[in-house]
Design goal:
Blueprint (H helix, E strand, L loop, with lengths): L1 H24 L9 H23 L12 H20 L2
């Protein structure tokens, strides 16, 4: 059981890292075809299946050119909570 827990915590931790990298890359302009564009495409493919359903429930807030994606933060916090829960259950 511990091996499954460790594997799940590892995968969820990698997912959180992907979320943070995606957030950081979203702050910069990325030209099509660049290495950053390819990395961003991979990160979007990995994270979007989880973020998109939450975004349908919690749409981005803000107006004009500044919009904050609260669903993204909800997914980050929920994943961190799951990591904590699994880690404490393995003790």
């Amino acid at each position: 059981m511990h091996a499954i827990g460790f594997l799940l915590v590892f995968v969820l931790t990698l997912f959180v890292i992907c979320l943070f990298l995606r957030a950081i890359l979203s702050w910069f302009p990325i030209s099509y075809g660049s290495t950053a564009h390819r990395i961003n495409s991979i990160l979007v493919r990995v994270t979007e299946p989880i973020v998109a359903p939450v975004r349908r429930v919690i749409p981005p807030v803000g107006g004009g050119s500044v919009r904050i994606d609260l669903s993204f933060m909800v997914v980050v916090f929920a994943t961190l909570f799951a990591i904590r829960l699994i880690s404490s259950a393995m003790l």
